[in-house]
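Fill in residues.
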């Protein structure tokens, strides 16, 4: 968590904004790097989800509302820089679904039972489900849902990678905060 001010009145507004900006910057850099990694064309919409590392970190280390803001801003900026209106719609729908899952896992007693890796996998699955839902609406075809099982399989694999990365940073931040 962000460290408290000496007066105990809460978080320094400047530190709070700086943390959000740093995590948004990290998410944008990770989005850009991800756009350079070729993925199989046989599975439309397949991505590693590296930017989700920053969103999960924000949810754990700052706050859930900040994680929502970082996620939505990252989606909007990334779509403007690297995508299209269609990719914005898909990413926003998937992002909202992932944020609902993130909130459900961080605001309930489940927070103490699910690791950041588990949260990452659940959010990746929700994101892919949201993207498929958006695609079926945009293209007017429920047949798009045939890709969902494949995307959910990759949600587990890529969610493990991003979640393990987030978990290591959260662990390091907790150790750093104790010193």
């Amino acid at each position: 968590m962000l460290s408290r001010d000496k007066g105990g009145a809460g978080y320094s507004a400047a530190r709070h904004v700086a943390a959000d900006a740093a995590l948004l910057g990290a998410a944008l850099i990770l989005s850009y790097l991800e756009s350079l990694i070729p993925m199989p064309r046989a599975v439309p919409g397949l991505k590693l989800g590296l930017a989700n590392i920053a969103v999960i970190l924000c949810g754990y280390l700052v706050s859930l509302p900040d994680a929502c803001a970082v996620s939505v801003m990252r989606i909007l900026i990334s779509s403007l820089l690297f995508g299209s209106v269609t990719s914005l719609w898909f990413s926003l729908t998937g992002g909202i679904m992932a944020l609902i899952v993130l909130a459900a896992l961080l605001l309930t007693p489940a927070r103490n039972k699910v690791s950041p890796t588990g949260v990452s996998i659940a959010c990746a699955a929700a994101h892919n489900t949201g993207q498929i839902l958006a695609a079926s609406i945009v293209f007017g075809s429920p047949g798009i849902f045939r890709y969902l099982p494949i995307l959910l399989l990759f949600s587990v694999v890529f969610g493990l990678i991003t979640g393990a990365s987030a978990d290591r940073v959260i662990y390091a931040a907790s150790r750093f905060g104790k010193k």
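The two ends are 14 Å apart (CA to CA).
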